[in-house]
Amino acid sequence: MKLEGLLGFLGSALAIAFSLMVLTIPGISQALEEESFFFYLLTAGTLILSILGLVGSFVVAHKPRMGAVFMIAAAIGGTMSVSVMFLIPIMLLGLGGLIALVNQEEIALDGE
């Protein structure tokens, strides 16, 4: 697994774990002072996008552009979460996606 795949995998695994923690442990949402239905809806959306980032981290080895788009979409979508816990996964997913895009463009330029 390349660096971008590893960064995407780590970012999405952390984001999935954090999303599941926020959704299942009521004390976390109380500590964040957010107990509304909208907060849980945003966290569920972040969970779905984190799964998309996980798929992107595996796809990036065969289709770098599509995997990069998946990881960047998960990072951008993860920003909708209001929790500070998601900052590290957002950075990992975004960095992995950007590295995959840059490497894919370099391969395309070298091949021409």
UniProtKB/TrEMBL annotation:
Pfam family, one: DUF4064
This protein's UniProt keywords: Membrane, Transmembrane, Transmembrane helix
Highest taxon listed in the record's lineage: Bacteria
Domain DUF4064 stretches: 2-80
Transmembrane spans: 7-25, 37-61, 68-101
Official protein name in the record: DUF4064 domain-containing protein
